[in-house]
Structure formats: structure tokens, C-alpha cells
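B., you asked whether I could sanity-check this one before it goes into the benchmark set. Here's the sequence:
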Amino acid sequence: AFNNYIRVSAEETITYEHIKRLFNEHLLNLMVPAEPVRPKSRSSALMEKAPQCYTLQHPLVADLVLEKVFKAQECDLFGVVRKFLEFPIYEDERFLPIFEELFLYCKFGTKLKFSVLFEELKVINPERAAEVFKEAAVKTNDAGIFANAARFLAKKKPPSFSEAKGVIHQAFQAKNAKPRLRNLYHTKGVILFAEMKDLIKSRKVKDLKKLEELATEVLKAHHEARTFPPTYPHPLIGEVNVWLACIEWIMKNECDDSGDTLHFLTKRSPPFFRTCASDSFYLLDVVDRIVQTVPNLTDPEETQRLSNRARVTLIAIFKKGISLFGPRRGEIGRAHV
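And here's what the prediction gave me:
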């Protein structure tokens, strides 16, 4: 990043001293050794050389500095990414973590967040970002990158559902798909549900038959993602979201109020929808148990928040309440595998 700003002879190696001249004193005060030395006696500390490797103490400061360099160089971010993908490092599995850090998730403490790089590319041009994502997936032949590329295609504006479904199909054929099957099925469910919501929003779901057809396809993917005993909460939350979408459609298109909706669901609806309310409460109870009992769960706070939000939405729809002991479609233990 700093090469264009440092002048050295061809034989000379760029050191921290060269880079230091680019920063003012206030910024230098924010820099600390990348590998701090352990405290030693005063005499030995005086004899020891200063560390050669430094870093910015706060990631926000590093972001500001690199952003300034990025803008000053008028860098074409898509060009840089394309050039990076031309290097054959993806052929060596030792470098796969680099691809995952760039194209999947960045670590922030104990949490994982979607790639900062792709958040930036998405802002610049989501269509080009999707093409780069697919190229990275094809070159690495990695199921995780395929799955995230498919999710990206389904959630960008405007979405590309048919392309997303094609890419998630490729994920199942990837070299490392077998150990990730449940995650892949969950991602497939997320994509199909995004398409279902889009069809509902655009008023293309005209009747209960079409609604059942769409819901069945999404639920099938989420069922494939289940574990036994239940340890993976997201497919269960995904199922509840499907039922919520169905209930809200029925409420708007078949009923006048929440009381009528409950009566319609339990007495007059097609068999497919009869137990969707009690099923949803039951699934959320299972999610709560998973959060409380499964160790090393990824982001349990977010999982609990999603579960709570779904429960509050259900309660808001059925203000009079609903029996938690009504008929259910079957125990969660009978995972469809």
C-alpha cells in the first residue's frame, strides 16, 4: 500500500523506519509492536533493540489510514480482486483460509461477520460483486464459497434467484461438500425462502395451493439440515419463518382478523396448514433448549434474539393465545434425513 510513497534504492529493503516517515507524531503514538516483548529488568531492556514489526493499536485507525491510501491511489478495487484471482494460489489448500477471510467471513473477536471486502464491492456494484464471488467459488471449488455466493445472489438488489439456485446446486458438487451438507441445505432453504417472500410481496401467490407448494419446497431443505439430537438451531428458526410467512399471507388474503385466522387455520384450512401455529411454538421451544444446553454454539445471543423475535411475532398475530399442546406434525427428533 505504501510502495508508491517510499523512495529507496534497488538494493535497499523497506523497513519500519521508512514507513514511519509517512506518519505524523500523533499517529505514531497509536502504533505498538505487533509482538510485544515480555517485561524484563531495566538493564536488559536498555540493551534490547526496538521491535522491527509494528501495527496500529486500534483497527479503526488502521482502516482510516488504509482508506486514505486507497483513495489517494484511486485504486480500482474490482481490478485488484480480479488480479488476485489470477494467481494460482487457490490450487494450494494451505491458502484456502485467505480466500475464506476475503470472500466469506472476517473475524471480529469471537464473532464472524460477512466479508468486509464484499460489503465494499456490493456498495460499488452488486452485479460485478456477484460475478467476482462466483469466480472465486469456481476457482476454489469450495462448498462454503459456493454457498455464500448463492446467498449473495439471492439477497442482492435486485435478486437473481434462478442464478442463486444454480450456484447452490454447484455447492453440493464441490470437493468438500460432504462434511458441510447440513449447512448447504440450510443455505438452500434461505435462498428458497427469499424467493418465496419475493413472490408473496409481488402478489404472485394467488391461492393456498401455490403457497403450500412454495412452503413445502423451503421446508424440505430445512428438514434436510436438521440434526439429531437437535443441536443446529438455524434450520428450525427457518421453518418457523416459513410458517410465519404462510400465516401472514392467510391473514391478509383469507381472514379478517387474528381470531378468524386462528379459527381458519385449525378448522377450515387445508391439512398442510392446520398445525403450523403450534408447530412454530414447539420449534422455538426446541431452539431455546439448544441455546441453553449446546456448548460452543456460534453466536448464541443472535440465535436467541431471532427466536425471541419470531415468538413475539406469533404472539402478536394470535393475541388471544394458542395452546402449546395442540396437535403437531411430529416430534422434532424425527429429522428428515
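One thing to flag: Strands lie at 31-33, 54-56, 105-108, 111-114. Otherwise nothing jumped out at me.
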